[in-house]
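To assess whether ligand presence alters the predicted conformation, the chain was also submitted together with zinc ion. Input:
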Amino acid sequence: MELFNQKVKPSELEKGDHVYTWRKKIYTHHGIFIGEGKLIHLVNPKADGSRKKEKSPCPTSDCGLEKVAGSGVRVTCIDCFIKKGSLYRFKYEASREFLVAKLRGGTCTTARSDPPEEVIHRATYLLENGYIEYDLINNNCEDFALYCKTGLWSKDIGYSQANMVHSTKKEAIIENYVGFPRSCLKRENKDLGEQ
Ligand SMILES: [Zn+2]
């Protein structure tokens, strides 16, 4: 029996973890934990501009740093990533039963994660060199984190996260995204109910 609770404390994070947090109870924001209290994540560079002004100053010197201007790939401290929310660990190699119980998608996948050093290498590489353009449907923060974890791209596919891969992992990931985003609120209630 797998544990359903994916909520984690910052102190419990391990390097290479894919984590997410709920924003406005509507959507999840995803990132990769790289150690030393920091995450690498993809933001929408356009939407981010207006929010930045409201932010309170963060004492972490490189928090919010974007090495390639306009790429949307940022390194951020945990506090700024979760804001006032909680932190959840995205689950890899979830069983079919687990997927069904979580109402599929957005919080877990049956796909396998690569070793943490590879995950961190990809995230760091994309921070240093930039990333293909952010797109809410085709290429969002979750796609970014999934790519860092598995090395699988969505690039030559026209539709959504459901079609992101062509490999033996494809079916698992497609199945995992069926129902997105209609089940989003339900999924959040499940997460919150498990605190
Ligand atoms: Zn910060």
